[in-house]
Structure to design on (396 residues):
């Protein structure tokens, strides 16, 4: 937290180790990443040369114990992602795809051989992963996936496509979710047929391509994945995967990180708006001296504080092993909405110059539009909460 925004003295709850991780990553973002962000944003590319430095921060698989990973607590991990997103959502997304999705899938559902083969190298940033769940025709309904893995005498044959996959063209291995056919006693059209597979780059029939023309998340490399009768060996299967609940467990880890990450974007926007309002003069006094501007700043601080409190409590629940998918879903939706409101209000305070790339708020605002959609739209998260409150599913 910044001093001006720590209205409930949450820094007092942080250990020296928490503060050291947070401040180290904040410093790196400010000195190494932020000065170059506009160059990458305008080019629509990711700073690949910084991947070893990002890995050295400990953020790849930061919540995983062993295998060269940091083994951070949920609180420390959340603070780390907050500081990455203070720089840009694309930076935090890169770390989330690598760690919360790809590495966590291997850690939770892979064999020991798969863990030792991939996790240490991924923690060091020497190998990259992606997570193939979403499909072109089944965004909010992963249970409707059409990608199939036909069981054969010598393994599996994978066919299908995935959409909106972060880092697909960069990945050395894709974690791909498919419904298995020819498995005794399993209906291939049911969610229980979903299994996870490791598909290395270069597998015949596997292609990845970049999705061009994005107005949002421009430094994030977002891709399509295509699988055309890819022949996979039996050890490509993540052996502990068991139905659609397996990828959804990975999404819970990632959504938790989002709930923390967007706080960084919101704080960056608030800091910029407050600074501008104090130094920009109109009608003989600073903008911050006008009641309507103070109202905007006060409401921004109010919303950020509520989001901080939700994230902190969720970290406590996760540490105690009590966090539910409903709580995580609620925090993801709420905190993204807060960050979007703050970014929009900050852009308004900046006035005309708010559209220039010398300021951060418009970029964060554009990025957060993507975050509101990916890993569960606002509507889906509200329906998850609605079902919990009423015990009536209303998804269809």
């Amino acid at each position: 937290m910044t001093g001006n925004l720590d209205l409930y003295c949450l820094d007092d709850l942080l250990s020296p180790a928490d503060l050291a991780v947070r401040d180290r990553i904040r410093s790196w973002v400010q000195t190494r990443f932020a000065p170059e962000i506009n160059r990458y944003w305008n080019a629509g590319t990711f700073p690949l040369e910084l991947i070893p430095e990002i890995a050295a921060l400990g953020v790849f698989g930061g919540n995983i114990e062993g295998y060269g990973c940091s083994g951070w607590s949920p609180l420390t991990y959340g603070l780390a992602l907050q500081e990455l997103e203070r720089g840009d959502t694309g930076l935090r997304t890169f770390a989330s795809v690598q760690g919360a999705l790809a590495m966590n899938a291997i850690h939770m559902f892979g064999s020991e051989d798969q863990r030792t083969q991939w996790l240490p190298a991924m923690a060091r940033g020497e190998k990259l992963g992606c997570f193939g769940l979403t499909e072109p025709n089944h965004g909010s309904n992963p249970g409707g996936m059409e990608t199939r893995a036909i069981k054969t005498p010598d393994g599996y044959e994978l066919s299908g496509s995935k959409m909106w996959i972060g880092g697909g063209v960069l990945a050395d291995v894709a974690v791909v979710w498919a419904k298995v056919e020819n498995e005794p006693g399993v209906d291939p059209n049911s969610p229980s047929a979903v299994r996870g597979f490791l598909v290395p780059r270069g597998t015949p029939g596997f292609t990845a391509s970049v999705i061009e023309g994005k107005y949002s998340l421009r430094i994030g490399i977002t891709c399509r994945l295509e699988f055309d009768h890819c022949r996979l060996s039996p050890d490509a299967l993540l052996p502990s995967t068991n139905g659609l609940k397996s990828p959804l467990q990975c999404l819970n880890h990632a959504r938790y990180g989002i709930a923390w990450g967007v706080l960084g974007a919101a704080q960056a926007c608030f800091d910029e708006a407050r600074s501008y309002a104090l130094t920009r003069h109109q009608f003989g006094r600073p903008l911050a001296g006008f009641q309507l501007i103070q109202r905007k700043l006060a409401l921004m601080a109010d919303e950020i504080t509520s989001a901080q409190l939700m994230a902190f409590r969720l970290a406590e629940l996760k540490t105690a092993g009590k966090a539910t998918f409903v709580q995580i879903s609620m925090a993801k939706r709420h905190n993204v909405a807060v960050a979007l409101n703050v970014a929009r209000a900050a852009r308004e305070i900046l006035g005309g110059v708010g559209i220039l790339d010398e300021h951060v708020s418009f970029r964060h605002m554009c990025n957060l539009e993507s975050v509101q959609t990916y890993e569960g739209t606002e509507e889906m998260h509200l329906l998850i909460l609605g079902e919990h409150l009423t015990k009536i599913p209303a998804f269809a």
Remarks:
- The chain has three domains: 3-123, 129-243, 246-390.
- The longest strand covers residues 155-166.
- The CA atoms of residues 260 and 371 lie 12 Å apart.
- The domain at 3-123 is CATH 1.10.540.10 (Butyryl-Coa Dehydrogenase, subunit A; domain 1).
